[in-house]
Design a protein that fits this description.
This protein is α+β, with helices and mostly antiparallel strands and 143 residues long. The protein has two helices and seven strands; from the N terminus they run E-E-E-E-H-E-E-H-E. Strands 2-6-4-3 form a four-stranded antiparallel beta sheet. A three-stranded mixed beta sheet has the order 5-1-7, with no helix packed on it. It is globular, with a radius of gyration of 16 Å.
Length: 143
């Protein structure tokens, strides 16, 4: 019996660009999503060339200037088991439209023992689900 080779892909579904606030994030029902206490997401105020920047600042502030949606997604899903070649879907402007984001946590950033701000990444995933209606689904495909 011949086995078909399969590969894993991650499908992005993004409904709206700078959409409504207050939507529920896609999370398991047995957990409460980590979320920023406040956040603003706006079209970038300056036309920046090249990559935007994302910084963690004191008092739990995440600041992103001139970033694309793909850069925000890449940052939010760091250390997850997929790479850009496996990501499919999303709108045509995912790599062109730029945004300024300022989000504040209820406390300072929690940095794990290995130096990773995993809680901040989780809060950003919640923000992307709320503001962009981002849904990430894993699926297997035959090669």
């Amino acid at each position: 019996m011949k086995r078909e080779a399969t590969s894993r892909v991650v499908r992005l579904t993004i409904a709206l660009a700078t959409a409504a606030t207050g939507a529920n994030a896609q999370v398991p029902t047995d957990s409460v999503p980590l979320a920023f206490a406040s956040a603003s997401v706006n079209p970038a105020t300056s036309a920046r060339q090249g990559e935007g920047e994302i910084r963690l600042q004191p008092r739990g502030v995440l600041s992103a200037r001139g970033v694309t949606l793909r850069e925000l997604i890449d940052y939010a899903y760091q250390r997850h088991p997929f790479d850009e070649r496996q990501v499919i879907g999303g709108p045509s402007w995912i790599d062109t439209a730029r945004f300024d984001v300022v989000a504040t946590a209820r406390g300072d950033h929690w940095i794990d023992a290995d130096g990773a701000p995993r809680r901040t990444w989780a809060m950003l995933r919640t923000l992307l689900a709320e503001r962009f209606k981002l849904r990430v689904e894993e699926e297997k495909r035959n090669r």
